[in-house]
């Protein structure tokens, strides 16, 4: 009886100890994260250790995910990734806390490794130097070790909170009395609250952006030449995409976990590589050149048939060819590579920039400076090419290389090196699954073949004959066109299908292919119910 009782007590005690170790570890990992975030936050940098680890994760695993859109995330997935990193850190902290009870030095090693991961990720981030990451790592690890020592010190001997640091061993010395639960929780609570406040402070500083104010105050010069944009509403069908996509509705795709905040005042655009005279421009010098404004539809290669990763905007910028000529591009410079502050790259054949199409270093979108999320202060826009090979946002460098000498970001990740936008069309209304009234129904949508132009859109109902749709006005061959087809709907279930023909006479193929490696093909169709 007495033996049972005593082994019960031991087990409870060790269970309680392990539990305290885990709590102390979680709180210490939190402190390490919070203090680690502080230096970059104070310095006004957008990429701290957590974001850097997240970016590294994206860069590493982008290749193994089938769909670019999955890795390029919506904002929610980005938040989920950050939450995942924090959660994993806290769980690792719990493990280290339990480990610390057996060997405090082992737990210190664990925290140092933890800091080294953050440091390594930050060090590979091209937008950061090395000083801040090192400071972050040192402060973060120090905060973690101190928190752990303080809390576990309270378990062992409250009068000497830093004892574990000196003792180099487990805190189960029988002469050391274990403090009551209340003292321990007080110690952990105090450290936890400090960590939480620090984390909140770092978080709120992080939101501080001088770029928003700078961008708002910026007035861009008028273009010397612009293609007039047809008034919206030339095509009266409710629910069809507007001809110009409002900037706030424009799709956004990029690998950046936090939108880069680039200061236009210190920003430089370098034109380098296989050129006779590399040069560098300030933002003022760039916008001081002759600007043109052109509406261009851009699309993401991951856009599924019928998807919405496509939009049409009026882009204001400097023709790329002028920058290439000024640099004196060399004969073997067969690829134009755009490089971004965040390390992203995109490359396309130099010939594309020289064949007369619209290819711009853009600074404005729909009459305003580029929003941060669309590449402020400057990005590339090349009519007819998917974004992943051309549309580098937060552009800092245009490098001329040989086509075979360099593969940009998405190429080793399994996407085609050449990325011309495929001729596509989409039904906006009626929506798939809609229940509609019988009678005359306006089926409408958009069709695009940038740099080529749309010649015709046709609609087929229930696999019947293709019938020509009416096309809306378009500014040029670089934008989508709106289309409408009036159809007499009889009660029952019906399938509507559309296809486009481009200006070279190529008809959008019916064959369904996945976005990878060079863009989806197939016809968009919707199934609707016509009420009786
Ligand atoms: N710096 C940077 N630029 C980038 C990307 C990126 O991940 N990073 N993504 C590209 C891709 S895949 C597309 S489709 C377009 C999307 O541009 P948008 O977000 O302005 O619509 O940006 C391109 N430019
Ligand atoms: Mo894309």
Task: Please describe what this structure looks like.
The protein has 532 residues and is α+β, with helices and mostly antiparallel strands. Strands 1, 4, 5, 8, 9 and 10 form a six-stranded mixed β-sheet that branches. A five-stranded mixed β-sheet has the order 3-2-11-6-7. A hairpin with a 5-residue loop joins strand 15 and strand 16. Helix 1 runs parallel beside helix 8. It is globular and about 85 Å long.
Ligand kinds:
ligand MTE, molybdenum atom
Q: How much strand?
A: 15-25%
Our measurement of the CA-to-CA distance between the termini, rounded to an integer number of angstroms, reads: 82 Å
Q: Averaged pLDDT, please?
A: 89
Give the strand tally. Answer: 20
Count of individual helical segments: 13
The best one-word shape is globular
Low-confidence segments, given as residue ranges, are 1-9, 167-171
What is the radius of gyration? 29 Å
Query: How does the helix and strand content classify structurally?
Result: alpha+beta
Helix content: 25-40%
Oligomer: single chain
Give the biggest beta sheet. 6 strands, mixed
